[in-house]
Write a structure and sequence with these properties.
Chain lengths: 84, 356
């Protein structure tokens, strides 16, 4: 009976224990895996595959030379290639 | 809107340029005058996608949050309109673009300082699985989003917020040169240069950047912070360093949780973030520059983000990861200012005043 109670108490403690804090996942062994998880992954943020200019004048010169229209992407506060 | 097809069309058939709407509209130089003449009105917040010719003819606009199919059709119509223009407005070499003229002083002022080390940063909100592992977040992880509609609604109106949110960190030349101390020996351990540690913590280990926006937070928001460098190897060619530490920013969990339970937030921003930091740096002694600057921060976040971000509220603690790495700074897109380094169209003096 005493053994059974101990098992029940242990099971209760395990169930009630909070999940491990995220910080515990940041270790040298997990560094590369975690880095891959955080950075952009295949199929995400495809705008990164475009060579954006950040000067409208340069874009106009290039567009005139190449005979192409300009696509102007604007963000609030900063260019959308960074935080905006 | 960033499907493979749309991305390819933009890359192949357009000249792409990305700007800050507020900065571009208010520039006091030829670029600003040109844009204002076109009749295009870029928003100070939010964002626009406009198409135009080199000579300033507006071809049309589309709303990135309009949905993939709508965006595809908009872009098709814009290209049709382009094709219908007379040769004098669209043939290669037909339009003559004048000299740029003097660039407005505020534009020059928000370029990276000479010799600065540029780090690319990514923030990502994560989810802890039942077995304690970490995974990417999905729309279903946001309970407050349930009343906002289906997944497509979320994707179009609230963006891919579970993707990595990009930004940059600038470290001035004198600062990065002081990170490696003279005559280093294996085992040396010392605090990361205060100006860099303070900037990294207050401008880049921030929770709001995980939602795509931030400013530099005030000193009192930092409850705790320690960032220590240890020299792990020294050879004639290179010095290897390990960066370790932790930070605690914003409200503590108990305060945040108490407000949460009492329903006292009412749209106020009460949040906290407690990351641990680990990084590996390599300083090439022959060329006197860093060739590796890989830093990760990972910790629990909690509370209600402010403004529109309250839609991303999640109860309890949830993990947020941050990655920093060297950027070459050789492309225009890698030379845009860190979000916290500017206030609209002028530099934020607080960004480089860190550690003082």
């Amino acid at each position: 009976m005493r053994t059974r109670n101990r098992w029940l108490a242990a099971a209760f403690l395990l169930a009630a224990a909070p999940a491990l804090p995220a910080q515990s996942a940041l270790e040298p062994d997990s560094f590369d895996r975690l880095r891959t998880l955080i950075r952009p992954q295949d199929g995400e943020s495809r705008w990164r595959k475009v060579d954006w200019l950040t000067s409208l004048h340069e874009a106009r010169v290039k567009a005139a030379v190449e005979g192409k229209p300009i696509i102007l992407w604007s963000g609030g506060g900063a260019p959308p290639l960074g935080g905006c | 809107m960033w499907t493979e097809e749309m991305t390819r069309t933009i890359r192949d058939k357009f000249v792409p340029v990305a700007v800050s709407g507020h900065v571009a509209m208010n520039r006091k130089d030829a670029d600003g005058e040109f844009l204002r003449r076109t009749g295009i009105k870029l928003a100070g917040a939010g964002g626009n996608i406009e198409c135009l010719t080199a000579g300033g003819i507006r071809l049309g606009a589309f709303y990135a949050a309009g949905g993939t199919e709508v965006n595809r059709r908009d872009l098709e119509n814009i290209l049709k309109k382009w094709q219908a223009l007379p040769d004098r407005d669209r043939k290669a070499g037909a339009v003559v673009v004048g000299e740029a003229g003097p660039v407005a002083a505020n534009i020059t002022a928000i370029a990276p300082p000479a010799g600065a080390l540029i780090l690319r940063t990514y923030h990502r909100v994560l989810t802890r699985t039942a077995d304690g592992d970490l995974r990417k977040t999905v729309p279903g992880d946001y309970p407050k989003s349930s009343g906002l509609g289906d997944k497509d609604f979320w994707l179009t109106f609230y963006g891919e917020r579970w993707e990595a949110q990009p930004d940059f960190m600038w470290i001035q030349e004198a600062e990065w040169q002081a990170i490696v101390r003279p005559n280093p020996s294996k085992g040396d351990s010392y605090p990361l240069l205060e100006a860099v540690a303070d900037r990294m913590t207050r401008a880049h280990l921030t929770l709001t950047m995980a939602y795509g926006e931030c400013s530099i937070c005030d000193r009192k928001s930092v409850r705790d912070r320690s960032l220590t460098l240890t020299v792990t190897d020294v050879t004639p060619a290179a010095v290897q360093l390990r960066l370790e530490g932790a930070a605690a920013l914003g409200a503590d969990y108990a305060t945040s949780d108490k407000l949460d339970r009492k329903g006292l937030r009412k749209g106020r921003s009460v949040e906290g973030f407690e990351p641990k930091v680990l990084g590996y740096l390599t300083f090439d002694r022959k060329v006197s520059r860093f060739t590796r600057f890989d830093v990760l921060a990972l910790g629990d976040a909690y509370g209600t983000p402010g403004g529109d971000y309250h839609f991303y509220y999640r109860p309890g603690r949830y993990p947020v990861g941050i990655s920093l790495e060297l950027a070459s700074g050789t492309t225009p897109g890698e030379r845009i200012p860190p979000r916290a380094a500017v206030v609209y169209d002028t530099p934020n003096p607080a960004y480089f005043a860190t550690g003082k």
